[in-house]
Amino acid sequence: MPDVYFNPHVASLPKYNAGLGPEAAQAASGLKTIARLASNENPYGCSPSVSKALEAVEPWRYSDPGCHRLRLALSEHLSVSPDKLVIGNGSEEMIAASARAFLRPDATALTVSPCFGLHEIEPLAVGAKVEKVPMTPSFEFDIIGLERALARSPHLLFLPSPWNPVGAALNHKELRRLVSATPDSTMFVLDEAYYEFTSEVIPDGLSLLRESGRPYIVLRTFSKAFGLAGLRVGYAVCSSAPIARMLAAAKTPFNVNASAQAAALAALADPGWMQGSVRQIVAERERVANRLRQSGLRVAPSEGNFLFVETGRSSECVARDLLKAGVIVKPWMETPYDSFIRVSVGTPEENDQFLGALLRHPGASEPAVSAKASSARYDLGLAPHA
Ligand SMILES: *Cc1c(COP(=O)(O)O)cnc(C)c1O
């Protein structure tokens, strides 16, 4: 097909690196037990009340395009009026909708680097430019660098806190500084996909932004702490109803399917299950981080359900070696972070499988694998951004 049909913005997009499935690790390792630590999913599953709710879904009926029941439940949960809430097919859809609604060709979006792939891909897809402010050498947000970039009035800011893949989260003072450095003409999008994992010292960005009186969008999701990644449901909390209407106009009408709406309602009604799993994940996160640090590796402090680890080798090689031991992680391919891997916190067994595979042969190019496994051919499907 001649290129003339291609939208050049779409044709030149970097590929989103979605992480490998278990089949690739089974083929590479010859093992049945695979530790899936590449996508920040909840290793404990989801609330048992979700399966019951799914049984009552009527697949032959269109889903509610306005997600009324879910918006009402969230409205109570967050003390926000329902007309400021937009539910998405995952919060990733709300990232795309934000770019469509608030950016035009040649506009500028600002984010951080290493970045969450979609915070770059979605602005590029609408023809905008993306500026990225790198993390500091101590794995923190470069507040001064961000303030400088914000002074140039980008049209939109995608700010992840906690920061995927790094793990850092903005404290009260830092978030306040960035909020006051952001011109009113900049749409402030705070992506709190990992909000439920944060400690008490990390502010609720929604409350802080609400106090500021400025325009904003806060993104949250049922994919991570609530364990509904496969059903695709996330949401945007907007500072005003007109902003919510703009976002809603930029999505497809029946974007959230009936199973996703029913599951999210059930998950939200069982906060105890979510909190229990979060406690275990946070405890494991600290155990894994400490073990890695004891072995001399640099690990960024994390407020999420993942760790960003400097391996001292090519991240692609490390990921390949781990795959041969049945462990799937995400190698970072964005220069200069290409010796980092991002590993999700799994169950204690999965984490031990990861630690064993990574630390048994620190710096070794030969991982412990059977001859059969090491001769298996597999495609890592790696691309920059994740
Ligand atoms: C996982 C993630 C999301 C997207 O989650 P959905 O499954 O689409 O709700 C959004 N932002 C960040 C930073 C993430 O890590």
Q: Which secondary-structure class do the elements indicate?
A: alpha/beta
* Shape, principal axes of CA atoms: globular
Order of helices and strands: HHEHHEHEHEHEHEHEEHHHEEHEEEHH
Give the total of beta strands: 13
The mean pLDDT is 92
Strand arrangement across the biggest beta sheet: 2-8-7-6-5-3-4
Helix content percent band: 25-40%
Give the cofactors and ligands. Answer: pyridoxal-5'-phosphate
* Alpha carbon gap, first and last residue: 29 Å
Rg from C-alpha positions? 21 Å
Low-confidence stretches: 364-386
Beta-strand content: 5-15%
Which helices and strands occur, and which strands form pairs?
Elements: H1 8-11, H2 22-29, E1 35-36, H3 49-55, H4 68-78, E2 85-88, H5 91-102, E3 108-113, H6 117-125, E4 129-134, H7 143-151, E5 156-160, H8 172-181, E6 187-191, H9 205-212, E7 216-221, E8 234-238, H10 241-249, H11 258-268, H12 271-294, E9 298-299, E10 306-310, H13 315-324, E11 327-328, E12 330-331, E13 340-344, H14 348-359, H15 371-375
Parallel strand pairs: 1-11, 3-4, 3-5, 5-6, 6-7
Antiparallel strand pairs: 2-8, 7-8, 9-10, 10-13, 12-13
The chain binds pyridoxal-5'-phosphate.
The site of pyridoxal-5'-phosphate (PLP) has 13 residues, from α5.
